Amino acid sequence: MSKKIKVMVLCGGRSPEHAISLLSAQNVIASIDQKEFKILPVGISKKGVWQYYPNGLDLENHQDPQKVRLKESGKEIILSQNYGDHKFYMPSDEGLTSESFDVIFPVLHGNFGEDGSVQGFSKLAGIPIVGCGLKGSVLSIDKDLMKKILTHESIAVAKSITVRSKKELNYEQVKESLGSRVYIKPACLGSSIGVSRATNKDEFNAGLQNALQFDEKVLIESEVIGQEIECAVLGNDEVQASTIGEIKANTNFYTFENKYVNADGAHLTIPVDLPNETIERARHLAIRTYQAMECKGLTRVDMFCLENGDLIVNELNTMPGFTNISMYPQLWKHSGIAQVELITTLIRLAIERNQKELKLRQIA
User: Fold this and answer.
1) Angstrom distance (rounded) from CA 118 to CA 113
2) Contact 103, 7 (CB under 8 A)
3) What SS3 class is residue 258?
4) Considering only CA atoms, which of 327, 318, 346, 354 is closest in space to residue 137?
5) Torsions phi, psi of 54, nearest 5?
6) At 15, is the pLDDT very low, low, confident or very high (cuts 50, 70, 90)?
7) How many C-beta atoms lie closer than 10 Å to residue 110's C-beta?
8) How far is it, in rounded angstroms, from Cα 138 to Cα 142?
9) What residues contact 182, with CB distance under 8 A and at least 6 apart?
């Protein structure tokens, strides 16, 4: 019998998306093939403390996206940064004991996890990690950098202005450049946290002030009128795109509450009701975007389809939600890949990429 691969499922974290990470991690853990993999759940508290839960991830209010939290029943751990060590250490009655692992599955959303932080540590220590790795994570989470790269690659994005303070411009300047209806977004967050829509000066000032609480860099983006569509992408060198899904929010935009709290806040349609030619163009564009942003493993590419059929890339999610209703696993389910198979593939892709990187010449 072959040895099980030990998977550290990492969740929580210091990001404002902490709670959604916990919900996603539950679903990932439930979907891992335990005949092939051994699960090592590790939760990171909001204060940044890492805890190992040897008897399974221990959560309070585990179904409530507003109240879910980690119980402090885990064993506090420290990871070895030594190259190839693949161990973490924890206190015991005998001193320090260690546990080895083979791969990290970072079910972390937003900063301090999806932004290259954990990916950089993994690269330093030579640990396989599920997802985009360092370059794809750093470039994709920053919507400002993303737009610059995609524009260079002749991929359409919404017109926007990037600011770092409330004093850089006023609503009249924004209105002249972007129109009277704009969206204000922290540059490096997801789950619609800190996002607002403004149609006048007061809404603009309040939205900008709110967004600057979450990020030192904020995007002000012109409103795009079109269908919100999404595509799941999977692979390292050989890349495949899922079918296309559509989100119809019951408010002006797809808010945090619509995504995770209000079951009737949005309607998801898979596959989207669009001509086959448009669907194929969207799938092709998702792969082009994925490759332009140096993504590996997985990403969800979000787009707008305009009334004339033109496609505009909105953003990338290098570790998209993995809750029961999340679009990424649902898109692959409708494309013929069940969630258990999807999770196995993602882990295998991480190990494959790590082995390829290990073959590169490191020292002259």
Assistant:
1) 5
2) yes
3) helix
4) 318
5) -65, -20
6) confident
7) 26
8) 7
9) 174, 197, 198, 204, 220, 221, 222, 223
φ, ψ dihedrals at 122, nearest 5°: -60, -45
301: which 2 tokens? 């590419």
Say what the pLDDT of residue 2 is: 67
Cβ 51 vs Cβ 77: under 8 Å: yes
Encode pLDDT of 154-207 as tens digits: 999 999 999 998 777 888 999 999 999 999 999 887 667 789 999 999 999 999
For residue 73, how far is the Cα from the chain centroid? Answer: 27
Tell me the C-alpha distance between 50 and 16, whole Å: 17
Three-state secondary structure call for residue 52: strand
Asked whether residue 252 carries a pLDDT value surpassing 70, the answer given is no
φ/ψ of 341, rounded to 5, equals -65, -40
Q: How many residues does the chain have?
A: 364
3-state secondary structure (DSSP) of residue 315: strand
The reported pLDDT for the residue numbered 1 is 47
First-to-last C-alpha distance (Å) of the chain: 40
CA Rg value for the chain = 21
Neighbouring C-alpha atoms within 13 Å toward the C-beta of 157: 24
CB atoms within 10 A of CB 115: 21
CB 244 within 8 A of CB 227: no
Alpha-carbon gap, residue 114 to 133, rounded angstroms? 9
Residue 265 pLDDT level (bands cut at 50, 70, 90): low
Cα-to-chain-centroid distance, residue 232: 12
Are the C-beta atoms of residues 213 and 236 closer than 8 Å to each other? Answer: no
The number of angstroms, rounded, from the C-alpha of 38 to the middle of its chain's C-alpha atoms is: 24
In angstroms, the CA 221 to CA 204 distance is 12
Q: Where are the alpha helices (DSSP H) in the chain?
A: 18-31, 117-125, 133-141, 143-152, 171-178, 201-211, 256, 276-292, 327-334, 339-358
Strand order from edge to edge, sheet including 75-76: 75-76, 50-52, 37-44, 5-12, 103-107
Q: Which of 192, 158, 182, 181 is nearest to 312 (CA)?
A: 158
